[in-house]
Amino acid sequence: LVAASGSSVSVSGSLFIEPGATLTQGVPRLQVGGNWSSSGTFSAGGGTVAFVGPSAQALLSGATHFAFLELASSGGVFWATAVGAANGVTFATGTTDLGFATHSVRGFWAVAGNASFQGSSGTVLFEGSSLQSVQAGTTSRFGRFISSNAAGVVLTEDAVVDRDIELHRGTLDISSRTVRVRGGLRRSAGLFAGTTSTLLLDGTSVQALAMGGGAVHTLVVTNSSAGARLDEALVVRGTFTVLPGAVFDGGASALTVSGSSGAWSTAGAVYRSSGPATHSVLWIPLAGTRLHVADG
Question: Are 202 and 182 in contact (CB under 8 A)?
Answer without folding.
Answer: yes
